Amino acid sequence: MKKIAVFTSGGDAPGMNACIRSVVRTAVYNKVEIMGIIHGYNGMIADDFVQMNSRSVSNIIQRGGTILKTARSEKFLTAEGRRSAFENLKKNGIEGIICIGGNGTFTGAKIFFEEYGIPSIGAPGTIDNDLYGTDFTIGFDTAINTAVDAIDKIRDTAESHDRVFFIEVMGRHAGFIALSSGTAGGAEVILVPEAKDDWKKLTHYFSGKNKIHKAFSIVVVAEGDEHGGALKIVEHLKKNMPGFDPRVTILGHVQRGGSPTAYDRVLASRLGNAAVEALLRGETNKMAGLINNNIILTSYDDAINKTKPLNSELLRLVDVFNV
Ligand code: F6P
Asked: I need a labelling partner for 303 at 20 to 30 A (CA). Which of 57, 101, 103, 218 fits?
């Protein structure tokens, strides 16, 4: 391969820039020309390509967001959009692509290969950590540290007022952010979509015969929880528990920003490098991930369709600590 391109797609995640840097420098090291595509698949369709070199990625390893911008592309879902994307890749002489993103990003890359034979390798960039084939996605560690920092701050005010706080964190349909940030933040209850016993947990903690008389408590709720998030859960509890007056904080997009942690920078550097090397070796339709600290390639099919389980040991600890 003489020329490849890199883009970021889907929700941005801290560490994407470190990954772009790694991809670009690995390409240059291997004497392969590299272009960046702006705004993910939308940029591919709009012919928004930029030539990159080693210096284009200077001083970005520490920056959140993505210098290549990102988007969730509606147009790429259409056959017409993908045709334009292919024509632009051809016009720019691109022979292979590195895509940094999540589920939707890899689904697009897989269809694109099936239709046009453009080889690609993915690097998992999403705060949600919801991809099979990697123990950690790029951005997850930073996001949970941001969430824990917020939980620590909320603890101060919760303790001062003897209040219960429900803190909602991101994660889309998965509970990885909730479980890790809740455990690290010392939450009394953690509600995740993967466990189906929310009311049992809440009743046990707040109103059952085992009620624990703590002056203040933290409940961490994953946004994808089956009962519709923190606000809906609190609304329901208030109806059934007169006098219950908790506060709700929804952390939202603050979890997506900020300077990546050292862990995310190292992970992004390793996976970006592995992705380019795999593409140049002739691999395609695979995601570079980290399993037990080893770099492993997993097919897009598995990364997209298989479910990565939550750590059941951590789930169990929440109950152990409620004594
Ligand atoms: O996938 C990352 C993520 O932040 C999810 O946790 C969240 O559900 C979603 O993106 C929010 O997307 P948007 O920024 O498009 O509102």
From this structure: 57
Which pair of structure tokens corresponds to residue 249?
């904080």
On the 0-12 / 13-18 / 19+ scale of CB atoms within 10 A, 267 is buried
CB atoms within 10 A of CB 128: 27
Among residues 140, 172, 179, the alpha carbon closest in space to that of 267 is found at: 140
Please name each of the domains of the chain with its CATH number.
3-139+260-305 (3.40.50.450), 142-256 (3.40.50.460)
Q: Is the minimum distance from the CB of 171 to ligand 1 under 6 angstroms?
A: yes
N-term to C-term CA, the chain = 60
* Residue nearest (by alpha carbon) to ligand 1 atom 7: 172
The model's pTM is: 0.97
Confirm whether 128 is a catalytic residue.
yes
User: Which amino acid appears at position 4 of this protein?
Assistant: I
Catalytic residue among 12, 47, 48, 128: 128
Measured from the Cβ of residue 226, the count of other Cβ atoms closer than 10 Å reads: 14
- 261-281 pLDDT, tens digit per residue, is 999 999 999 999 999 999 999
Is 155 a pocket residue for ligand 1 (Cβ < 6 Å)?
A: no
Q: Sorting pLDDT into bands at 50, 70 and 90, what band is 210?
A: low
Q: Is 127 in the pocket of ligand 1 (CB under 6 A)?
A: yes
**C-beta atoms surrounding 220 within 10 Å:** 32
- Give the residue-averaged pLDDT of 279-300: 98
